[in-house]
């Protein structure tokens, strides 16, 4: 039986391109998460591009470290990081090997496995909130650092993979500044989303952390 075109997996060559080509092209694609608990399929609705050593907003801006090493390739792997001591975030590595870049998966609509996602996201008031934001997306899919460096093409049933899905019409793709990015990388219009989709997360500008005052009162 022939697979429907939208069920065909993307190729590694898809990810072996500039991050600014890959990021908007991921919108509408189907992210598949397989685990012992079951399978979840999610239609990507919001992403952000990070261009490594030329991007002040990227974890790889100051070069390669133990933490960000997977961002330097090869393409088609996952970069998972832990933030604020609480949350994981999922990125897909792209671009030529040796040049760090990745796409942060910010939001999506769960098409398959919503019951499983609800069990992991008990605070969600509606299904549209299950993966509305990068930490929520990772939580719904049970993504943690154990999946860092996972190969999207690692065998017939990898833990994470991406199917062709149904990309939106180009006139529905929007771009703007990345959420929560400050400094010299604050104004790059490298956040991409599907206009009008209810699962897209709200934009928030960077808010510098303030240290507690040490003055006596």
TrEMBL record:
Keyword check for Cytoplasm: no
Gene Ontology molecular function, alphabetical: hydrolase activity, acting on glycosyl bonds
DNA damage as UniProt keyword: yes
Pfam families (alphabetical): Pur_DNA_glyco (PF02245)
Family: Belongs to the DNA glycosylase MPG family.
Matching NCBIfam families: 3mg, PRK00802.1-3
PANTHER family (UniProt xref): DNA-3-METHYLADENINE GLYCOSYLASE (PTHR10429:SF0)
Name of the molecule in the record: Putative 3-methyladenine DNA glycosylase
């Amino acid at each position: 039986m022939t697979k429907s075109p939208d069920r065909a997996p993307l190729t590694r060559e898809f990810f072996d391109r500039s991050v600014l080509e890959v990021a908007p092209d991921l919108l509408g694609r189907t992210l598949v998460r397989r685990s012992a608990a079951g399978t979840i399929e999610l239609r990507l609705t919001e992403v952000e591009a990070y261009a490594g050593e030329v991007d002040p907003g990227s974890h790889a801006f100051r070069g390669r470290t133990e933490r960000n090493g997977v961002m330097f390739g090869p393409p088609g792997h996952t970069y998972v990081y832990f933030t604020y001591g609480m949350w994981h975030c999922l990125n897909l590595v792209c671009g030529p090997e040796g040049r760090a870049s990745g796409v942060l998966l910010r939001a999506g609509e769960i098409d398959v496995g919503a019951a499983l996602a609800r069990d992991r996201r008990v605070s969600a008031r509606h299904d549209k909130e299950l993966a509305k934001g990068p930490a929520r997306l990772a939580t719904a899919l049970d993504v943690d650092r154990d999946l860092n460096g996972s190969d999207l093409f690692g065998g017939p049933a990898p833990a994470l993979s991406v199917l062709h899905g149904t990309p939106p019409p180009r006139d529905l793709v929007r771009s703007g500044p990345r959420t929560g990015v400050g400094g010299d990388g604050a104004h790059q219009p490298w956040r991409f989303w599907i206009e009008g989709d209810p699962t897209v997360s709200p934009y928030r500008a960077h808010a510098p952390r303030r240290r507690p005052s040490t003055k006596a009162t």
